[in-house]
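Q: Is it fine to ask for two folds in a single conversation?
A: Yes, each is treated on its own. Send the first.
Q: Here.
A: Result:
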Amino acid sequence: MEFFNQMIEIFIYMGNNWSHLIELTIDHILMVVYGVALAVVVGIPLGILCVKSEKLASVILAVANILQIIPSLALLAILMLYFGLGFTTVVVGLFLYSLLPIIRNTYVGLKEVDNHILEAGTGIGMTPMQLLAKIQIPLSLPFMMAGLRVAAVIAVGVASIAPYIGGDGLGREIVSGINGRDNIKIYAGAIPAALLAIIADLVLGKMQKRMTKKTT
């Protein structure tokens, strides 16, 4: 009974503060979109570079892996020393955290392309760039989308600690609730953040399945 009463209180609070929560949700989404988009712009070329050179692959993947294992709050605190408090630091942190799944999945996807298909392309006179653009990248899109899916879900979670280094987003409501020992506020921030992660996973998962069907 206590659980249901608390749920009712949470929904009443969310209803009374819906405009504020929507504003925080938009900030949260923007941080995630900017961070992941930057990771796509940088990560896909790095993944392609990994396929071209196995020596570079070991270095690039090792660096991306090290970035991934640094605790998120520690990474953001380090970035804060250079970028200062606020939105930019959070976006750069999300960008760094999103790199590994995108680089690794691009690399694996390109490596998984059947050599016979590449040989057939070479046989009809396609250049390496044409092979990459017309065969390798289209066939590896499901892997790339899987990397994007993982990166997006991770970014939604990491963005929740943005207020500790001056950022906004739904984490602001969670941190405010923690500081004030107010469970209602904590849930009012945590529930939309969890829903964002679930929605990102479902939408990108569906896109991944469609791409898999098209390439098989």
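Q: Second one now.
A: Result:
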Amino acid sequence: MKIYTRQLLVVLLGLIGNLFATMFFRDSLPNGLIILTYQDHRLPIVDISFVCRSGAVFDPEGKAGTASLCTDMLLRGTKKLSADSIAQILDFIGARYGTGTDFDRCFLNLRLLKKDLSLGLDILSEMVLEPAFPEDEFTRAQEQTLTSAQRAYDYPSALVAMEFDRLLFGKHRYSLPPRGDTATIRKITRDDLKNFHKTHFVPNNCFIVFVGAVDHEEIKNEVHRRFANWQPGPVSSPQSPETILPEKIRVKLITRKDMNQTYIQFGHPGISVFNNDLIATRLMSYILGGPPLSSRMGLAVREHGGLAYDVRCWFDRRLLPGAFRATVQTAKPKEAIEKMFTEIRRMHETGATKSELLKAQNYFTGSFPLSYSSNQGKLDRLSEIELYHYGIDWLERFPDLVRATTLQQVNETAKQHLHPDRYIMVIMGNVTKDELNLPDVEWVE
């Protein structure tokens, strides 16, 4: 019965993939603007994501948060519409809207009914092509961003992650969050936002994703009518971080006597999303520190050790090489750290087993179609496909690539991309160096 169920699941997943392919279209305008369309007429709803391929990694030096603030300001007024007018119109038609920025992109999302698509595209094109960056709205947005950055200091896990990034990435933009911090946000000016928009919001550096009750020929015409006169411009490439693998463990201890739990993050330089080992590395890190109930770290630290509720590890997936990270929150940091070190070293030296790999492959191939079952999921997957140049057949190829990954490939990535005892580590809690008793480490003051 289990065999028949598994075969049925494989057939269904294959049908979902083929169905997706028949409804997915990629078009472009002569100025380089890419249009991705997924047709689904079951509901009269359209989801739109406008994406600029330049994210926070392009922030000017010393002004981290410029990209994020620039994108936020797109909703706060155009040459024809004030921020209040934009909000009133979109609220009147019941639209949902918002902006976002990470290191690799800026985006503006819009969800509305099919009947309001033309109006929505009119406003979207104005926000992208003719933002006004009004002084009063800029002051308000800057203050709100500062407040958000200050609130991060209330969360120990966020503070530990920020300190880890600062130690690992040094002066590179990856050392601060995409929104910036309280020091850099204050330095940003309206002219910085205007310059960022002028430099990076060019059609050959952007794409638009449509999901829902649309026809791709109709969408091409609608987008052409509004964006055809947009002039292309030069597109620059980001600089990779110059990370150094430490010779031995470097530890930053932040003592907080008011805390009853200790927050820990450690790791070392990782890989980029373009690395040929990406899928094998993802499978390996899932086995090592994916689900806290069944991964090696989860079993050792949580299930058998009873030392923490959650423990994980992962490799960043970014355009530029990011980090390998492992995190835990525990009342017994010394014991938890020892078990995590042991599991990483065991994976590095002896690798995974066939049964562990099969389990990881089943998880990835089974959960992948679910990740794009909703409109928002489709927007996310299509944006990733375009941003990281996966190819329009990625949704069909990804499960095949996962199944084709061998145990030897997974174990080679453990040898190549895990570096036991060469970590950068940040520890925050009511704990002392003597209590941690970490052998042969360099303490960072």
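Q: Anything structural to flag on that second result?
A: Two points. Residues 240 and 320 are 6 Å apart (CA to CA). The longest strand covers residues 45-52.
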